[in-house]
Predict the structure.
Amino acid sequence: MSNREPVPFAQWDEPEGEWTLPGACPVRSNRTLMLEAAARFLFPTVLVFSVYLLIVGHYAPGGGFPGGLVAGLAFVLRYIAGGESEGAEIGSRFVVRPPVLMGLGLLVAVVSALAPAAFGAPVLASAKVSFDIPLIGTVDLVSSLLIDIGVYLLIIGVVLDLLRSLGSGIERDAREAAGEEAGP
């Protein structure tokens, strides 16, 4: 027989171990194991799909904007599952400030759009380079991919900034509600 007491029905899926709690959550009972497990599984998969959309955008539907939106949705899922500490960070290894990401994306897009003018071509002109990679075959690289990479970074930065600004109020309200429940 087990010495464990029965778990109330409302708490059956509440995470028990620290391994499922990547960050500080103001109200621990608001987190579910299923959502956290799904977010941890889907996050890298959705990011890989967003990079696929980014790269394939020159020959099929996709590009920097839809790829950035899909990557942004991955961060929204991560934010919903883990709160502020998960959503505003890429993984848990390093923090990327959204304004820096937006600035970098804008810089990459503008410089790559204006670069052809330095060589006497019109602005936004595109060049194509083909080269062979062993075991893969011929790879065509289009210079306008740099513009899409800039847009991709810009959109991810905007989504992370929205999560940071809109989510901070939600986090604050949850902390205040948890403080009121603790009582004076």
Notes: The first helix runs from residue 33 to 56. The chain is about 60% helix and 10% strand. Residues 17-22, 87-93 have pLDDT under 50 and may be disordered. Helices lie at 33-56, 64-82, 84-87, 98-118, 145-182.
